[in-house]
Amino acid sequence: SPSGSMGHFVVWDYVVFAAMLLVSAVIGVYYAFAGGGQKTSKDFLMGGRSMTAIPVALSLTASFMSAVTVLGTPAEIYRYGAIFCIFAITYGLVVLCSAEIFLPVFYKLGITSTYEYLELRFNKYLRLCGTILFIIQTASKPQSCSTLYTGIVIYAPALALNQVTGFDLWGAVVATGVVCTFYCTLGGLKAVVWTDVFQVGIMVAGFSSVIIRAVVVQEGIGRIVNDSYYGGRLNFWDFNPNPLQRHTFWTIVIGGTFTWTGIYGINQSQVQRYIACKSRFHAKLSLYINLLGLWAILACAVLCGLALYSIYKDCDPWMAKQVSALDQLMPYLVLDILSDFPGVPGLFVASAYSGTLSTVSSSINALAAVTVEDLIKPYFRSLSEKKLSWISMGMSLFYGGVCIAMAAVASVLGALLQAALSIFGMVGGPLLGLFSLGILCSFANGIGAFVGLVSGFVISLWVGIGAQIYPPLPERSNALHLSTAGCNISSENLTSTENPLTTVFNTPTAERPVLADNWYSLSYLYFSTLGTLITVVVGIIISLLTGGLKQTTDRKFLLTKEDFLSSFSWSKSETKVEVLGWKSHAVADEGTDNPAFSHIEMDVASNTNKVNGLHI
C-alpha cells in the first residue's frame, strides 16, 4: 500500500477512466449500425475491405502498444539504459520487410486468414498446423494475439496499477474485458480499428502528461539528460557481438527484426488489418505511417524511463521496498508527481488500459477470423453469408469470455503461465520460416515445409525450455546501478540488489550443465531468428531431395519482380495490379454469393477509368 505522503485516486480519476471505456463502447455501437451494419462475415472480419491508410496505421500502432509498453518499457530503460532505442532501427527494417515481401502476396490473393495462404501454396494439413499453432500461440511479446496471452495482458497491468494506486483490481479487469468484448462483437473490424485510433490518442496523452510534469519537476530537460548521462543510462552503442548478451546493437537489430517480422509480417491480428485497406497503395502506406507511430511511442517511453531515473536516482523505490515489482514504477511516479492534479493520474491509468483494450480487441477479432475462415468455412460449405456473420459475432463473444476467464487463471497461476508463454513464444520463428519458404522459394514443397516447420519448432522449444529451467546469469543482462543512498528510511529493510528471478523451476547454480551457460543463455531475441533460419534451411534441403524442382508453383503465390517494382510507380502499375488482383479474388471467392466483396473491387477499378471496358 502506498505510504501516507503519496496521493490516492480521487473521484475525478475514476471519471476519466470511465469516460475512456464509455467512448470505446459508443464507437462499437455506432459501427454496429452505421452503413447498414455488418451484413456479411467479410464486413465483420475485414471491414468490407474499404479502410483507408491512416486509421489502419494508428490501429496497428495501438495494438502493438499494450499496457506492457506503457508500464514495462520505461521500467526497462530505468533498469538497463536507453540501448532499447536501437529498436527504432529494428522497426524500420520490420516495416520494410512486411510491406515489400509479405504484403504484396497476401494482398493480391485477397485472403481473410493468413493461414489460407498455406493451403493455397502447400496443402491443407499445413494450414491446419498453422491455425492451431496460432490459436494456442503466444509470442513472448504482448502483440501477438492468443487466448493465453490476453489473460496476462488483462491481468498484469491491473495488478500493477492496483498495488500502487489502489485502483480496484477485478472491477478494472471485468470492466475492460466486458467493454472490449462488447464493441468487438457489435462492430467487427471497423469498431476495432476506430477504437484503436481513439486509444492511441489517450496513450500519447498519458505519456505526455508524465513527461511534461517530470520536465517541470526537474526544471528542464537538460537536467534529465545530464543525470541519465552520468548514471550510465545513455548506453546506445554496445557493439558486443556476443549472442548471449541480452541487449546489444546486434541482438536488437538482427534478433529483433526476426522477432517482430513474425508479428508484423505474418501475424493474423496485424495482417488482417492492412489487408482490409481499400487498395494496395493504402495498405503499404498504412505500414509506413505506422512506423512513425512506433517511433513516437518509443521516444515517449524512453523519455519516461530517463525521467524516472532522473527523479529516483538517489532513492530507488524498488530497492527501498516502496514498490514490489519494476512495472509498478510508472504508476508510482505518476502518483508521486501528478497527485496535485485531479484527473491526471486517472488519464495515465486510462492510457495503460487503452493499451490493454487495443491489444485484446485485435486478438478477439483475429481469433474470430481464424476460427471462422480456417475451422468453420472449409467444413460447412452450405452456410449463408448472413449466418456466417452471426457466427463471427458469436465467436467474438466466445473469445471475449475466454480472455476474461484467462485473466482469472493468470491471477492464480501467474508464474506458471509466464513460463508457458515464454516457451510458446518460440512458435513465431518457425511460422515466419514457413511463410518465407512459401513466398520466396518457388521449389519448396509441402514435405520440405512440414519437416522444416517441425525441426524449427523442436529446436526452438529445446532452447526455450532450457532457458526457463536455467535462467541466464545476471551478468548477461547488464543491469545498471541503482542507489538508495538518498532515502530517509531505516537501513534494515534494504534488500540486496540481486534480480529477483521469478521462475517456476529455480535450481541451485552448482548444477548448471555446460549447455546452460552457452546454448540456453542465448538472448531471448535470437529465439525467433534460430527458429526461422532452421525452418528455412531444413525446408530447402528436404524440398530439393524430394523433387521440389520438378513441381510448378503458380506465380501468384510467390513474390514476383512485378510485385516488387510496382510499389515505385503508382499510377500505371496500380491499375494493372488491381485488374490482376480482381481476377484472383473472383477465383478465390468462387461459390460464395458475396456482393459486398466483388462490388468494392469493381469500384476501385472503375475509379481509375482506364480499365473499365477491360474490367467488366
From TrEMBL:
Subcellular location: Apical cell membrane
Membrane topology: Multi-pass membrane protein
The keyword Glycoprotein is assigned to this record: yes
Biological processes, Gene Ontology terms: propanoate transmembrane transport
Residues that span the membrane, as ranges: 12-33, 53-71, 77-103, 169-189, 196-216, 247-266, 287-312, 352-376, 397-417, 423-443, 450-470, 524-546
Top-level taxon of the source organism: Eukaryota
One Pfam match: SSF
InterPro entries: Na/Glc_symporter_sf, Na/solute_symporter, SLC5sbd_SMCT1, Sodium:Solute_Symporter_SSF
Keywords per UniProt: Cell membrane, Glycoprotein, Ion transport, Membrane, Sodium, Sodium transport, Symport, Transmembrane, Transmembrane helix, Transport
GO molecular function: organic acid:sodium symporter activity
Catalysis: reaction(s): (S)-lactate(out) + 2 Na(+)(out) = (S)-lactate(in) + 2 Na(+)(in); nicotinate(out) + 2 Na(+)(out) = nicotinate(in) + 2 Na(+)(in); acetate(out) + 2 Na(+)(out) = acetate(in) + 2 Na(+)(in); bromide(in) = bromide(out)
Annotated Gene Ontology cellular component terms: apical plasma membrane; extracellular exosome
Record-stated family: Belongs to the sodium:solute symporter (SSF) (TC 2.A.21) family.
PANTHER family: SODIUM-COUPLED MONOCARBOXYLATE TRANSPORTER, SODIUM-COUPLED MONOCARBOXYLATE TRANSPORTER 1
Protein name as annotated: Sodium-coupled monocarboxylate transporter 1
Gene this chain is encoded by: Slc5a8
